[in-house]
Amino acid sequence: MVRCRRPHRLICALKRLLGLVLGLALSGSVLATEVLRVLSWPGYADADVVTVFEQRTGARVEVTVIDADEMLWERVSTRDAADFDVFAVNTAELQRYIDRALVVPIDLDALPNRGAQLARFRDPAALPGVTRDGKAFAVPYAYAEMGLIYDRRQFEAPPQSIAALWDPRHQGKVLIYNGGSHNFSLAAQVLGKRSPFQLEEADWAQAVERLIALRRNILTVYAQPEESARLFTSRGAALLFANYGTQQLQLLRAAGADVGYVIPREGALAWLDCWVITRGARNPALAHAWIDYMLEAGPAEVLSQRHGLNNTRNQPSHQADADRLVWLEPVEHIERRNQLWERIVSGDSAARVLAP
């Protein structure tokens, strides 16, 4: 403690103030904690999984959950990837992040747990959309096919085609994921187009008409898997386009719903989600540590056992015929698909939907 005679009180006060400032600065430097900012889909970064990583590294993890590709793009692109360090994205969507240099190549040698992944996920060059110019930009983490979930009580036999979504017998009883990209792909599939991801200019009017017809059957749209399960059970839905695949199937069965799951004859859209590192990552080494940790058995088991999603370490208990999986590819004009879908959901006519 500094003791001062009366003439020197001002000097002493300044000394005390200086000591306080220095003390706070030193205290702050000691207590400062590294923060990892994670942008995640539902089920990818549960609290208990995050806690283990925090205990190991001493870092604090901030998780932000998104439920739509466009929400992910908005979060990352509007600030040029400055707000997050690592995020999960499917291989088709990844391309625009690479195009904008919003993500950086990953040092695969810093991820020893890749050695425990299934062989088909260990070679980046064999995975479409994962590499660019010989550099790996993503590490596979989870995947699923988007099948159809149906209420057994309302079907005499399992639906065989995507066209079941349009069946007038299910008017007002169909749940659809609220995403323009996938829904235009569904329309392209039911119209028998060559590629569900590349509509020709002449195809747009037909696709819009098909989705307006689908709107007549829609009970409502959903974003998150838990939301879809709640709506399905509480509002008597008959059919669900399962954007999250077997994750939704598991949620519904856990809720006591008598449901079945099918891959339609046209094939099911399928996604492969990967972890990537942003250009704005504050600590790339910590971001690599997160990705490597997520490839361990613990997080993989949570992903599959708790959430019903396929992980990249273990053969899934439910595996669709590989020939009937339609892996997502970049679409011809994602902004156009989303804009037109918003107009369709709002109730516009075909003429208004297609208006400039």
Polypeptide structure, described:
This protein is α/β, with parallel strands linked by helices and 356 residues long. It folds into two domains: 35-142 and 271-320, Periplasmic binding protein-like II (D-Maltodextrin-Binding Protein, domain 2); 148-262 and 330-354, D-Maltodextrin-Binding Protein, domain 2 (3-Layer(aba) Sandwich). Helices cover 38% and strands 19% of the residues. The protein is built from 13 helices and 15 strands. The chain has helices spanning 9-31, 47-57, 69-77, 91-99, 119-122, 180-190, 204-215, 225-234, 246-254, 284-294, 297-306, 334-345, 350-354; strands spanning 35-40, 60-65, 86-90, 103-104, 131-132, 135-136, 139-145, 148-151, 174-177, 218-222, 239-241, 259-262, 268-278, 310-311, 325-327. Strands 1, 2, 3, 4, 7, 13, 14 and 15 form an eight-stranded mixed β-sheet that branches. The protein has a five-stranded mixed β-sheet with strand order 10-9-11-8-12, with helices on one face. Strand 5 (131-132) and strand 6 form a beta hairpin. Helix 7 (204-215) packs parallel to helix 12 (334-345). The longest helix is centred in the first third of the chain and has 23 residues, at 9-31. The protein starts with 8 loop residues before the first helix and ends with a helix. Residues 1-7 and 17-31 have low confidence and may be disordered.
